[in-house]
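Give me C-alpha cells for this 134-residue protein.
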Amino acid sequence: MEAQSDTKPERFIKSRGKTQFAYNIHQVTIEDPESKIRTVFEYDYVEIENKITKAKIIKALEDAELELEEEFDPSEIESTFKEVKEAIKLSDITKLTYKELDTYIDNHVNDLASVKAYLKKLSKLVLAMIRHIR
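Here you go.
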C-alpha cells in the first residue's frame, strides 16, 4: 500500500492491531492544493499480524509485489501450475538425500553430454520451483 507523510516514517508502526512495515521511503517535493511547495515522504508499507519475523516481512513484500502485477490469463496459470507439478514429479533428484545426490552426480555426470543433460534437468526443476513460488 502507498502512503505519504510530512515526517519521515518509522520502519515499524503499530496500527489497528497490526504492525506496518514501511519501505521504499523517499523524500519528494510537492505542490499542495493551496499552491504551496512542501517536502513530504512517500513510501509503501505492508501489514503484518502478530509477531514480526524476517520471514513474515519477506512474505508480505512478495505478496505486495504480486498484487501489483497486471492482467493475467487464467489459462496461463493453469498450464504453469501443471508444468511445475510435472517437472517436480519427473525429476528423480527431488527424492535424493544430499549424499545420494553427490553419488548420483559422480556416477551419471561424467562427460559433456551428460553434463548438458543434467543441467537441462536441473534448470527445469529450478524454473518450476521459481514459478511455483511466484
